[in-house]
Amino acid sequence: MGGRLGTRFVTAGVRIRACGVYWGGNSSKGVGGSLTFFRGGGGFRLLVSRYNMNNNDNNLMQLASGALEPLGFEVLEVQMQNMGGQPIVLVRIDRLDEQPVTVDDLARASRAAEEEFDRVDPVAGEYRLEFESPGAKRPLLRARHFERMLGLKVRVRAEGHSFTAPLTGVDGDRVTFDVNGEPVTLTAGTFQANLAEFPDRHR
């Protein structure tokens, strides 16, 4: 069972309603949904309300990546959140060609991922599926991510380390930060890192 739903775009405080975005659901699995777009915090967000009555423990990151990487998207993170008692699956994506993520990209990614989520049913009960562009606090997972953000401040959490400091160098997988005037070097992929300031241009 499918249907055409209104899509709401919110850009710089101006709200525009547009119809004709197709979203397919499967009534035999108790699935339905709606789409909402927001822009804020340096990125776009697409909300897809979902009603899923089945339960599965599949890895959400693997599920989203498998659906989106063939389309040229990189899944930066998938988070299970809870807002007011409602489960939320947040999928944050970037483009593999390093171009800015657009609202059209989020819509295309959502359609592809929804098919996989419908097929696998990874979350029990009613939940909301959200797609977001990298934004001001984008995760930095691999060396190339750090190379693109050289000179910016990064929030780092690792065993024995917790700091926010400028990113000063990348050599292979070795990433160096200026922490209170002292260099601290870590290996990309072994610690948690998020941007702590938004770049003045797309990187």
Automatic annotation (TrEMBL):
Alphabetical keyword list: Cytoplasm, Ribosome biogenesis
Domain annotation Ribosome maturation factor RimP N-terminal: ranges: 65-136
Compartment(s) where it occurs, according to its Swiss-Prot or TrEMBL record: Cytoplasm
Main location: cytoplasm
Family: Belongs to the RimP family.
Database matches in HAMAP family: RimP (MF_01077)
Function per UniProt: Required for maturation of 30S ribosomal subunits.
Protein name in the entry: Ribosome maturation factor RimP
Lineage of source species: Bacteria, Thermotogati, Deinococcota, Deinococci, Deinococcales
